[in-house]
Amino acid sequence: MTAATHSTLFPQVPESADAVLDGLDPEQREVALALHGPVCVLAGAGTGKTRAITHRIAYGVRAGILQSGSVLAVTFTNRAAGEMRGRLRQLGAGGVQARTFHSAALRQLQYFWPKVVGGDLPRLLERKVQLVAEAAARCRVRLDRNELRDVTGEIEWAKVTQTVPADYPAVVAKSVREAPRDPAEISQIYATYEQLKRDRSVIDFEDVLLLTVGILQDRHDIADQIRRQYQHFVVDEYQDVSPLQQRLLDLWLGDRDSLCVVGDASQTIYSFTGATPDHLLNFRTRHPHATVVKLVRDYRSTPQVVHLANGLLSQARGRAAEHRLELISQRDPGPEPAYTEYADEPAEAEGTARRIRDLIAAGVPAGEIAVLYRINAQSEVYEQALADAGVPYQLRGAERFFERQEVREAGIALRGAARAGGNDSLLDDAEDLPSQVRAVLSTKGWTTDPPAGSGAVRDRWESLAALVRLAEDFARARPGATLSDLVAELDERAAAQHAPTVQGVTLASLHAAKGLEWDAVFLVGLTEGMMPITYAKTDEQVEEERRLLYVGVTRARLHLALSWALSRSPGGRPSRRPTRFLKGLRPGSGALGAGAGGLGGSSGGGSVDRAAGGGRRKHRGPVRCRVCGATLTEAGEMKLMRCEDCPSDMDEALYERLRDWRGDRARELGQPAYCVFTDKTLMAIAERVPTTGGELAGIAGVGARKLDRFGADVLALCAGEEPGEGCGGVDEET
Fold it and tell me: Does this model's pTM top 0.70?
């Protein structure tokens, strides 16, 4: 039994319905045979979900149980829908409709509009940005190009969550969503945009769903006609449905339950667009008698890659984590994931490029290698490193760095300032090259502090900040360099990266990598502040970041490399810390315990984390922050061994387990919880994850008596095990 990933280009159409089932594993076969009633397929990454559902449809059609014209399969991208149609044709079920939600709704809307409203369907607005810009102008709100993109995205989010303009501010406040502008302003622009559409008789893509929903709700005769045509529904990537798409699906179904959904809550990474896994997680509540099948045999990745993926999810929290799937690799063993710590970002990029060059020399095609990062602004240093190493590359889901609008505009401004020289008043107070660049780019939107939240404004700032950092590095490498020298350097870099590439290494953001896979994947920039991203504040947002990393890990078939840099630039302060998500998984970062996804003693060629603290306490001189080296004076900071403002690498899952355990012990002893351990002590334990009694005793707040009474329980929790029964009273902390 093999995955469908590497099927032949022109397979033979199965001779019979039973032949359609050949080659399916037991769980895939169970899916294919579950043709009645509601069916929920929980399919982990690489488990052959598309194979299972296309064989299910084809078997039903070939066996005469389903009529091909009565089946509607929906997914989220044209690429996925096209792949599904291709597979169905190969299986002898070419008459089945496989479409995106929008495509299916648009066909229905075009057909029924003349009957319901009369005349032709209003023109579909291909790009709503121009109309949003006009709406903003009418509201006397000035938006630059990036703010315009963000506000347009907010309007799309509001529509798919069925939020009307008047309700937008309240809904945003309730959802703890970071709006790109004042919510009242966006509400006004949104309302004006809707009015402009009505005035000009145009509709947008969200209207396609909204209008179809409206017709099906108001015209029962039309709803009945559609339900007579489509008797059976299949929904792929069900964890990504929006409330509006779910409403449309409910109307298509009516009171029937001939529905098969396929999804994985652990791959929910698009909540910012309105996607929610709630419909998948609540499926069995809505359909108590549903057939539920779990696909956990991973045909894509080696046991080593799967082991890390399982380990990531073992630390997850929240509803989606409760439904995580433990994958089982079906492939032969491969190399261990490689963990590498670099001194700075350029060293990380150069090291990655060297490893990629070695892989290509060893026979791995460049097109089967990917470098994945959190945000598109990270691409520049990898574009340059690969170009310097003579490795072809291609960007996915983003413009090349030097082709971005803001980078082109910045280049023009820098070139103008270089020509003007001392005659440019902007440069009057700029003493060196970096300060000159900062002064020029401040006119293009660069600021000392990044803008709050995510979106186009943040993306623009990140691009400009990358230019500022490049100027700083350039000046450090070439003391005395002028602005003209920097402009020449930028031109050379841009020219080097414009070389045409046919077969190249893929550079992509983690979001853009969803649904794809490669033989070798490099996950780069895995530091706190980037993974999870700085603006992930709530528990839900942090958990989505963990899932994003999980998606990145599961893109790899054979080779997987994870890396981070301790500082931004050469010679910089090594104040960064690797992502908390790898705590207990990478070598030297503590252990999760057996069965929890740890990597054992194998380092896979990676470096050992520089664990802070440990050993006996012997602070006779000043206590210094283990992150930045500053002298600590506050008791709480001294307990944590770091400044309050310095980044924490706390294992949050462990912290929650410690709090729960502390509450239980406090109740048993009839004492306040802080008498067991204070919050700060628990935080210190969760940050340092001690593995021995000596390491635990080295944490402030853990005296000898508390070590005797609670040490075994705490060390068990740190190892990912269940604590034993405790006994005795509690002494005050010393």
Answer: no
